[in-house]
Amino acid sequence: MRSIVPFIFVLIWSTGFIVARAASPHADLDMFLLLRFTATAAILGVAAMLAKVRWPRGREMRHHLLAGILMQGIYLCASYWAIVHGLAAGVMALLGALQPLFTALASTLLGNRLGRQTWAGLAVGLVGVCFVLLPRLLANDANALPPIAVIAALVSIISITVGTMMQKSAHAGGDIRAVGAIQNIGGALVAACFIAVLGTWHVRPDPILVAALGWSVIIVSVIGINLLVWMVRHGEATRATTLLLLSPPLSAVEAYLLFGETLSAIQIAGFVLALSGVLLARRG
């Protein structure tokens, strides 16, 4: 079971922006995220209460609340804001692929030595991601890189990196259901702040929106993010986040299947490179 968890996780994670794309015509994305975080917190909270697990308190609770603010709230709200304000989705995906490198650097600064094979795997994987995203990047003009949107994107990647590393700290224990509920409350607080400042409250009920929300809550949040937290707790953070290099290639395949987007030979080669890099890094 342990061996297939990483592959289940990366398949789930790759659907995150696909779901957002499906939902965006029917709701402002900040409002969509508020609904997602609130529903996820409610589901995990009820599950934790029914199981009568111990809830984090005091400093431990504040730690998880901050992790949720960073890992979910700021990461997703800032990512979506960057895309809405002119950052090409392909550029956002490329910047997002830097997270494993950021995590590896953070892990090194904290005293964890990473082998050459790990660094080589990360480099190969990042090249593969570039190949996958190359057609999108070439299709964009200079206006696809507005400075404020790029800054927001980098803030989002740094936030999820720090939030992920916090899952390995001394205060990161606790039942994953109770912890997940607290972290999603943190994400909901950020989404609510974005809505209050930006006024992005529009929602138009629609079967597609309900389906997208259901998938993002049950599959991406309840299952996917908890799998990531579980992997970070039971392994090394760099090994877990290296899997995120496969997210852009898988998203490209999903966009091809669901939205009829093109999938060229160079993108397929990039997928193979990204997969090879992930396997090399994880062995290292």
Structural write-up:
This protein is mainly α. It contains 13 helices and no strands. Helix 4 (58-84) packs across helix 9. It is globular.
Give the tags.
284 residues; mainly alpha
Question: Looking at the structure, what is the overall shape?
Answer: globular
Task: Count the domains.
Answer: 1
What's the total count of β strands?
Answer: 0
How big is the Rg?
A: 18 Å
Order of helices and strands: HHHHHHHHHHHHH
**What proportion of the residues is helical, as a percent range?**
over 70%
Share of β-strand residues:
under 5%
Q: Unreliable stretches, pLDDT < 50, 5 or more residues?
A: none
The number of helical runs is: 13
Report mean pLDDT, rounded to a whole number.
82
* Main sheet makeup: none
Task: Report the end-to-end length measured between terminal Cα atoms.
Answer: 21 Å
Name the structural class: mainly alpha
Summarize the structure.
The protein is mainly alpha-helical and 284 residues long. It has helices at residues 5-13, 16-23, 29-51, 58-84, 89-96, 99-109, 116-139, 147-166, 176-198, 207-234, 237-242, 247-259, 265-283. The protein is globular.
Topology:
Elements: H1 5-13, H2 16-23, H3 29-51, H4 58-84, H5 89-96, H6 99-109, H7 116-139, H8 147-166, H9 176-198, H10 207-234, H11 237-242, H12 247-259, H13 265-283
Helix pairs in contact: 1-10, 2-10, 3-9, 3-10, 4-8, 4-9, 5-7, 6-8, 7-13
